[in-house]
Amino acid sequence: MSGVVDLAAVKAANEAKAKAEQARAETARQGGGAAVPPSALVIDVDEAGFERDVLQRSAEAPVVIDFWAEWCEPCKQLSPVLERLAHEYNGRFVLAKIDVDANQTLMQQFGIQGIPAVFAVVAGQALPLFQGAAPEAQIRQTLDQLIQVGEERFGLTGIAVDGEAAPQQAEAAAPPPGPYDALLEAAVQALDAGDFPGAVQAYRNVLSEDPGNTEAKLGLAQAELLRRVGGLDPQRARQDAADKPADVEAQLAVADLDLAGGHVEDAFARLVDAVRRTAGDDREKARLRLLDLFEVVGSDDPRVASARAALARVLF
Hints:
Residues 30-148 form the Thioredoxin domain. The chain has 316 residues and is α/β, with parallel strands linked by helices.
């Protein structure tokens, strides 16, 4: 458990403990600190909610961070173990899951070189725990040490869990039923009529009510692709990409044309290469467009799995 000794020894330990105690007192003063439902023990965290969901919560209990990605096979082995242990430990730590594809800034701030990577935040202080799909016995030992440090150095006793809140929480979290057939049919009709902006809006209307609607997500990705290629001159776009290999926008345009024309591997390879050759905002544009094209093809397609592996090699 690299980093725990350093954390316990840092000169700022007493100051961090005092801040944690102040945060707990402020939470209590505002009427917080009540028991939480079991579902609150495992949370998805993004950059916008990091301070609230991780830093502030770390004044009550250690927050274990699981950096993962959909294409990462070892992540699929590790994440269920961490989730099960979070419920078993019943509030002695909170598990925060961070998708590195959607949160590049956090990945860079933590210096993530490969995933899965597991960190912890205790009273606002971050420390590395382990990397890779570690055996469960090792994970338990690491968590026990982490909890001990939180208790002894910072007075963190964990959060109370209300087991009876689970049914209500599950019911509250269920997506609204809907009827979406009319909206989906309107989107299809707009696509057939070549009204791509109208189709995009129709699919977005469904997703605003039901963010997990698979049909709407796929339809939106397809409609946005068709809207992008609809205004392109294919011959000119390909010539621009050949003449300006460092122009990310030119490469994005041809990747869209390739995918719309059925040349899936060519589109993926072009964007993976663009990610490899660029940096900063240009690299992020290429990466996000590649993820968009993955949505068009579908995550079950073997060509998507192959391209995700190639992207991972470029990124990490």
